[in-house]
Structure prediction request, 409 residues.
Amino acid sequence: MSKGKDTKPHIGIFGRRNNGKSSLINALAGQELAIVSQIAGTTTDPVKKSMEIPGIGPVILIDTAGIDDAGELGAKRVAKTREILKIIDFAVLVIAENTFGKTEQDLIDEFEDKVVPFLIVHNKCDLFPITTSLQVELTGKFRVPVFDFSSTQKPDTEKLVTALRLKIPESAYIAPPLLGDLISPGDIVLLITPIDFEAPEGRMILPQVQAIRDTLDHNGINVVCKETEVADLIKVLHPKPVLAVTDSQVFPKADAVVPKDIMLTSFSILLARQRGDFQNYLKGTPKIDDLKDGDRILILESCTHHVTCDDIGREKIPNWLGKYTGKKLEFEVVSGLSRIPREITEYVMVIQCGGCMITRKQIVNRLKPAVDAGIPVTNYGMAIAWVHGIYNRAVAPFVHGNERPGDCM
Prediction:
């Protein structure tokens, strides 16, 4: 399940079977969105529900299977439930009957490991009110709100909704700019967009569209051309562009024709900064020089697409890396958010695509096992810039702040 392009806050509802997770969703929505049953295990797979919570606005609630599901099939359901932690912005842990044990503690440990803020709802209080001792213990131990709640007996959702509104991080609502902080109103941004057999017919790829929109949102002026027109265009553009953004595949050509006093980067590097693990990319990219014969590299494509004979992730990057390093390297490509086939420690480097179709939360959590294991991570655009000798120029707008070339330091 992918959060994808949906930028509404994603809230995961977790808890044991029959604790009333689906009933809680219905109470928050004020309507019956989720199937409710007295039979434990009614919800078998995570289910997204787009809804409007009064006082919060549009959100995506994710109803999950019970974290105590049993048996071989139950274990698979629990695994799917835990996968949801990679995409959510906030979690609600539902307990009942004053039961809090290792199952809940393990889940909270995962919340904290993935930096997911949360609160606790003690449901079915009409049958079993929470004990003062348990409420004090949980509030003190985890420093989060603990609500005694009934999803069925005239539920009072106002306090819960208020807590959700205060606790959901602002980053769940507001995406950082793609390039808007690099320009001023009226500035020209030159977008270099090759049109070849990989380009979708009749339209532009998503990162190009996002760059155009972000420029407009910050009152900049877009000028879009193919790489073959850049040299002649720059001669007549006045004022000259303050920023040029290129497709990574024509980075060397763009570097040769874009004057050095104009900032130059790529669509992929813009995405790397906006929604990737940029600081770790900066640390990991230079490790390309340390690659040795037989090293296995993991390439992560975060969307599925038609594979061509000149695919950037499956063909061009492996060929460029092999040529640059002079080493015989092994590559494995995982598309979408599919499970990685090996232990992460069997790879010496991970290269992540721009991630235009997914969220920063997904990318950072996707890369976290590698980062935790000390395995270098990088991004398509940054790796391409490195092997072509233009890395420093490509990341300079972000590494050295927002100063433009020529500005006083």
Q: What stands out?
A: The first strand starts at residue 10 and ends at 15. The CA atoms of residues 227 and 253 lie 7 Å apart. Residues 312-325 form the longest helix (14 residues).
